[in-house]
Amino acid sequence: GWEHIQAGSVRLRHWGKADDVRSLKTRFQQGDVLYGKLRPYLDKAVLAEWEGVCSTDILVLKAQESLLSEFLVFLVHTPQFIEYAVSTMTGVNHPRTSWKALRTFALPLPPIGEQRAIAYVLRTVQRAKEATEGVIAALRQLKKSLMQHLFTYGPVPVTERDRVPLKETEIGPIPAHWRVVKLGDVAVFSANKRPRGQNKSSLIPFIPMSLLPQETMYVLQWEMRRATEIRSGIAIRNGDFLLAKITPCFENGKQGIVRGIPGGWGYATTEVIPIRPSGELHVEYLALYLRQPRVRQELAAKMEGTTGRQRLPKTVVHQLLTPLPPLDEQHEIARILQAVDQKIAAEEARRGALEAVFKSLLQQLMTGRIRVKDLPIPQSEA
């Protein structure tokens, strides 16, 4: 179905069964281009690698003799084609284009040999991007497994976990020498005080919800606002851990450690809970512990308020039972997991660079600014 096609990709990675399609079905063959005509601005088009059936929200494009399917599937991802398709949409709630409208699109058509070379270049970049995405997925799974291991057995090799004496606690098994404490006993939840001597014209760092990260560890961006422009906010300092308390920001994982704000203090949206760990609690360890799905689910179940505007009470976070290893083990757990985070960040940067290269090449190859008609192509790709 249309929902199985990933935006911007030329490969079909997910599919269902023919019985899942309740509307009329269209048959397609290997080598056809499956183009999503519903909401064409979402850029959905893939090359069929086998035969099958699809929903009627997908147009089956069959290339003629002068056009290669491998070239066509990239052509329909160009900004020019997307813009044209969007201009032909009809309908309000479910805008669609149609073959009748798209068939008049004037497409650039290089010789077959050059079409094959263009497709080979773009396919090579896409494969590199897909490989990077595979590495990212594997690293995320590794981190998930590591978190479960580290918060159960501590920072020991997986092969030595059977040697770690465990004890049963309210939050499950943990190393026998760890403690279980209420978060409020090892952290301060009271609001920070604003430093004196600030006048109304001073520029003050302000962290809105939009700048609170979802996946990274630190809050590294803020807005500079005049005191008179800050109508509401909660005072924060460098080193504070900010936890989003309103739905859906909490469920989306918005949280971060304040780092590097000018002057060492500022304000944040009142929809966060600032937490300042004591000397017994390492702030990065706390941030990683609160990333665990089990902990998130436990807190989410205790949110209060009307649907769509639920909030997490500060008292609930204050009472959260938290495993407390010795400080050196907290540091080591954080170091191990942050090393994985750094690898993920590096791969994400690589993916971003490959995406930028792909978009640039797509535009330049399809407009003839770069010519590859004499590019040698491996026999396996011909």
Task: Give me some keywords for this one.
382 residues; alpha+beta; Adenine-n6-DNA-methyltransferase TaqI, Chain A, domain 2; Helix Hairpins; five-stranded mixed sheet; four-stranded mixed sheet; 8 helices; 18 strands; elongated
Give the topology, please.
Blueprint: E1 25-28, E2 33-36, E3 45-47, E4 52-55, E5 58-61, H1 69-75, H2 79-87, H3 99-102, H4 112-153, E6 166-167, E7 174-175, E8 179-182, E9 187-188, E10 203-207, E11 218-219, E12 223-226, E13 234-237, E14 241-244, E15 255-258, E16 265-268, E17 272-277, H5 283-289, H6 293-300, H7 314-318, E18 321-324, H8 327-366
Parallel strand pairs: 10-16, 11-15
Antiparallel strand pairs: 1-4, 2-3, 2-5, 6-7, 8-18, 9-17, 10-12, 13-16, 14-15, 14-17
